[in-house]
Amino acid sequence: MKRSMYHEDLQSAYLPGRAITWIARRRWGLRLMQRFGMRPMTGNEIEGMVNDEIFIPSKSTPGHDIRARVYKPANAKGPLPAMLYAHGGGYQVGVPEQANPFFEDILKRRDVAIVAPAYRLSLEGHPFPAGLNDCFDTLLFMKENAAELGIMSDKFIIAGHSGGGGMAAAVTLKVVDTKAADIAFQMPIYPMLDHRMQTDSAKNMVGTPVWDRRSNALAWENYLGHLGGDIPDYASPALREDLSELPPTISFVGDMEPFKDETIAFMKTLEEAGVPTRFKIYEGGFHGFETVLPNAPISQDANEFQVSAFADFYDEYIR
Domain span at residue 25? Predict the structure, then answer.
């Protein structure tokens, strides 16, 4: 994939993005990324907002507590609608605080409480379903302790980017199946949905900045390799064929990344099932482009798209 194939706003990130891809293809590289890139973000706060940290007792693993960050607008009157947010990282690395710029944009647009768990990671010896259980248990905690948290006990929003987008979709499936909570809408942004990697984009995007076929294959192996061939749809949400019971959904994706086709298929299936959707494809966009070059015009458009769609859905499905 040549530099000229990417959007002109993003071409300056071509070589740095390729370097990230090279690192993400290797387990030792991912460990370095987590240790020196992700963990130092732990404890970072959003200026002008309420920044709390809580520890949630796991329902699925006795003795395990889930660290979670809780963000709210300063001086907001509750109870607030609440968002469960799963961070990205291919189910294998990452911390909630890496999404602080997104949280800041969301919190400035509407009054909402964001609860972001530091779910267990496959690279640290916790493959599926550990991370999903942590996210689901966090949502249950939010519902059961809504008054203490100052949030509404219904009309939850479930969101995430990349691997966190796949996690958001998986949590939504489980919540819908179990009727554990009421979901107003979901935001799986350029989600990691399909372990089969048989779409054209999953097969052909090799050497793309930030994430490519090889880093994708390693991430799925780290997350699901212990399962053999018996993969449930909570682990790989693209396996779910009937999406008619899912809530309204927001997403976007670049057309120069492995998740393009699976995201398009997911959103098309939702639309055909009569689920309200808001979706955009960014020509020349690589994986996570809006976080790598946030000031680029195309990135500003993508960030405005997701927070504007959030505000619209908030107004329609919550207020």
Answer: 3-317
**Can you list the alpha helix ranges (DSSP code H) found in 64-212?**
100-109, 130-144, 146-149, 163-178, 200-204
Q: Greatest CA separation found in the chain?
A: 53
First-to-last alpha carbon distance for the chain, in angstroms, is 45
* Cβ proximity of 251 and 189 under 8 Å: yes
Q: Are 191 and 219 in contact (CB under 8 A)?
A: no
Burial class (CB in 10 A: 0-12, 13-18, 19+), 47: exposed
Domain of 158, CATH number, reads 3.40.50.1820
Reported in sequence order, the residue ranges of the chain that DSSP labels E, i.e. its strands, are: 49-57, 65-73, 82-86, 113-117, 156-161, 183-189, 249-254, 277-282
Q: What is the DSSP string of 199-224?
A: SHHHHH--S-SS--HHHHHHHHHHHH
What does the pLDDT look like over 118-154, one tens digit per residue? Answer: 999 999 999 999 999 999 999 999 999 999 999 999 9
Residue 83 Cα distances to 35, 69, 116, 227, angstroms: 27, 12, 8, 30
State the Cα–Cα distance between residues 64 and 162, nearest whole angstrom. Answer: 25
Domain count, the chain: 1
